Each structure stands twice: as C-alpha cells, then as structure tokens.
Amino acid sequence: MNRVCTFACYCFLFLFLVACTTPERSLETSLGHALPTVTREFRAAWVATVANINWPSKPGLSVEKQQEEAIKLLDLLCDHHFNAVIFQVRPQCDALYQSDLEPWSYYLSGVQGQAPEPFYDPLHFWIDEAHKRGLELHVWLNPYRAHHTAGGPVTENSIVRKKSELVVELKNGFWWLDPAKEKTQDHSYDVALDIVRRYNIDGVHLDDYFYPYPSYNDDEDFPDQKTYMEYRKERW
C-alpha cells in the first residue's frame, strides 16, 4: 500500500511540474509570437520627498545640489544591484515636476508654487538618470493627502484654498481630500493620467490610498459626516 501511495505521489508531482512549465509555451503557440521577457525580480527602493525624508535633503537647495543628491542616490541603488526606483512626485497635492494641475512642491524651493531656478524638471531628470543606470523609474503618488504639517504654510496655491470643498482638516494639522467625493476621485485620476501621458515612466504607485490613520484625528472618525449621510441617503 505504501508503494502505491509513493508511486501516486511521484506521478502527481510529475504532472504538476509539467503543468507548471507548459502553459507559457502553449500560449506563445496560440498567439503566434513570443511573449515579452518578464523581469523576475523587482528590486526597488522608495525615494520619499515628503518632509524631505530622502530627497532633496532640505527645501531651497540649488538646482546643482539637488541634482548632485539625486545622482548620489541613484548611484547607490545601482551599486547595490537594485533595478528600480519609486520616486515620490506628489506628496501633498503638489508636484515635483512641471504641472498645470497642481503647484510646484514646497519641498523643492521652500515656497509652494515656485519653480526651480534655473529651471529644470526634476521628474525628467530622475527618469533620464535612472534609465542611464539601467533602473526603472516608477512614480509614487499620494492621492488624498492635501497638506502635510511639514509642508510649509497653506498658501493660495494649495488645493486647500483652490478646492476647499474637497478637503477636511484633521486635528493633527493635516488636510485630507474626502475620498468619497467624485471630484476628488476625478482630480487624482487626472493627475495620474497627466503624468502617464507626458513622461517616460515605467510604473505608477499609489500610497496612503485609504482613509488616514485614526491618530491623525485624535482617534476620532474621519470628518466626512456630510458625505456619509449623502451616501446613506442614496443607498437606503
């Protein structure tokens, strides 16, 4: 009986291995052409710009210094055999790239809405330098954070002022877009699509795509009572 069970196990293992190795070739045959090569390892690092965590090291650096710091980070990733970098380009409804939808980031110049001087586009720079080193460049977007406490004063350029009907203030000083509002969804979608259409990026990542942590609002519910009641009225 043990021999029969052992033989059955070997047969099952053989069939399993065959099944695992044949579908791709069968698919290639049915399509009539070879499938693209897939990178089997994704060795990526996040580069955070919010609160100047990783880059640039502080607001208001010269363009030369910003680029020098960027190259140092990319060389570090390349030297340690990474193959991708995930670059935060929208930390608080702002832009570390040229945008007609949102203002230049405070974390670049120290003044929200102020372009680099002399002018350059940081996202273009990061893409070019990453690709030179064989690294993929993925953009990292925060879809709902409207203002961070480390993001300088709330200015007239901020979405907090320009689209005040979409934002709520949290008790820790953050401002947050109300995810349930259709105009919030449309705006974040437009921002992502704008980047995809204009830049030679290799991927898009969304972070903090949920309601904020309870600690952001003194452990109280997210202040969206009006939106929630509208939702209930529609559903019940």
Q: What this model shows, in words?
A:
By secondary structure, the chain is of the alpha/beta class. It is 39% helix and 13% strand. It folds into two domains: 2-31; 44-235, Glycosidases (TIM Barrel, Alpha-Beta Barrel). The chain contains eight helices and seven strands. A four-stranded parallel beta sheet has the order 1-2-3-7. It has a three-stranded antiparallel beta sheet with strand order 4-6-5, with no helix packed on it. It is globular. The N and C termini lie far apart (62 Å). The relative contact order is 0.11. Residues 1-24 have low confidence and may be disordered.
Main attributes of the structure:
236 residues; alpha/beta; TIM Barrel; four-stranded parallel sheet; 8 helices; globular; disordered N terminus
Give a brief outline of the structure.
The chain is of the alpha/beta class and 236 residues long. 39% of the residues lie in helices and 13% in strands. The chain folds into two domains: 2-31; 44-235, TIM Barrel (Alpha-Beta Barrel).
What is the 3D shape?
Answer: globular
Give a quick account of the main beta sheet: strands, pairing sense, barrel closure.
4 strands, parallel
The CATH superfamily of the largest domain turns out to be Glycosidases
Strand residues, percent: 5-15%
Cα gyration radius (Å) = 24 Å
List the helices and strands and how they pair.
Layout: H1 2-21, H2 23-31, E1 44-47, H3 63-79, E2 84-90, H4 106-109, H5 122-132, E3 136-141, E4 145-147, H6 159-162, E5 167-169, E6 175-177, H7 182-198, E7 203-206, H8 225-235
Parallel strand pairs: 1-2, 2-3, 3-7
Antiparallel strand pairs: 4-6, 5-6
Helix pairs in contact: 3-5
